[in-house]
Every structure is written in structure tokens, then in C-alpha cells.
Design brief:
CATH superfamily of the largest domain: Lrp/AsnC effector binding domain/regulation of amino acid metabolism (RAM) domain
Structural class: alpha+beta
Largest sheet: 4 strands, antiparallel
CATH architecture of the largest domain: 2-Layer Sandwich
Strand order of the largest sheet: 2-3-1-4
Radius of gyration: 20 Å
Number of strands: 4
CATH class of the largest domain: Alpha Beta
Number of helices: 6
């Protein structure tokens, strides 16, 4: 379980991964060395998986976003299909889903021609892939990788009957 101090550290790093341990320490009332140790433990436990730059896809000529549903012939969770999809660089996310389809992918491409090439020559050419269905995104109103830590804490407290103000 992650305590409240570690939650604040995670929220702080989520909003600014370049913040100093000294500044985090001022916010949570710990010495920078204690913050460093907590962050190290959060990394070791897998709660903190890494630090990323948030890049505008259009700035690197990958402005087309699409979601692709993949149906595979493979049984047992489709591990070969999953591994092959994970290995494709233009596939940002691979989710094993319930329902008729096996996977939902988030993909980025330069344009529709590049998306067609990705679908036909990389995804569709996998021997275990039976079919794909693609939805092209016209506009994105919200996209985030931020985990709502404070919302989860509030919900847990309400379930426990705590009075939070």
C-alpha cells in the first residue's frame, strides 16, 4: 500500500518530473535524501515506472491518430499476436480486450497512406490476425497519461466513511 506522503510525491512527479527532491521535500515535509529514498523504493516496487517527455505528435509528423480493433485466430490470450503487435513501433498501446475482438491498439501515423501501410503490411500481414476495424480520430478533446491519484484516494475515503473536506 502507498501512504499519503508517497501519493503526494507521485502526484508531484506526474505534474513535473523535473522537480528537485529538495522542492518535493519542502512540499511533503521531508529532507531531500528521504524523498530520494522514497522515489527509489517507488521505482523498485514498480509504482513509478519511468519519466517521459510529452511530445506533440504533429511536431514530429505523426498527427494521425487511430484506434484499431484486432481479431486474432490464436487461442489462450493470443500471446504470439500480442508480442508481434507490441513490437510494431507505430503502435503506442496494445490492450487485450473482452468481446468479439482480441486487442485494441492506439496507433500514430503520418497520414492515411502511412496508416494504410501499417494496417496492410505490419498488422494485417501477421499470420494470426483474422481482421481489423479502424477508427480515425478527427479531433482530440483530452488525452493524458496522468493517473488520477487524488480521485482514487477520495473514493477510497468515501467508501471507508471518512469525512473529507
Amino acid at each position: 500500500m502507498i501512504d499519503q506522503t508517497s501519493r503526494v510525491i507521485l502526484e508531484t512527479l506526474q505534474s513535473d518530473a523535473r522537480i528537485s527532491n529538495a522542492e518535493i521535500g519542502r512540499r511533503v515535509g521531508l529532507a531531500p535524501s528521504a524523498v530520494f529514498e522514497r522515489i527509489k523504493k517507488l521505482e523498485e516496487r514498480g509504482a513509478l515506472r519511468g519519466y517521459n517527455a510529452n511530445i506533440d505528435p504533429a511536431a514530429v509528423d505523426l498527427g494521425l491518430l487511430a484506434f484499431v480493433l484486432v481479431r486474432a485466430d490464436e487461442r489462450g490470450g493470443a500471446p504470439r499476436t500480442e508480442a508481434a503487435l507490441v513490437a510494431i513501433p507505430d503502435v503506442q498501446e496494445v490492450h487485450h480486450v473482452a468481446g468479439e475482438d482480441c486487442f485494441m491498439l492506439k496507433v500514430r501515423a503520418r497520414d492515411t497512406a502511412a496508416l494504410n501501410d501499417l494496417l496492410a503490411n505490419q498488422i494485417g500481414s501477421l499470420e494470426t490476425v483474422r481482421s481489423t476495424k479502424t477508427t480515425i480520430v478527427l479531433r482530440t478533446a483530452k488525452e493524458t497519461s496522468t493517473i488520477p491519484i487524488a480521485s482514487a484516494e477520495l473514493a477510497r475515503s468515501r467508501e471507508a466513511g471518512d469525512d473529507i473536506r
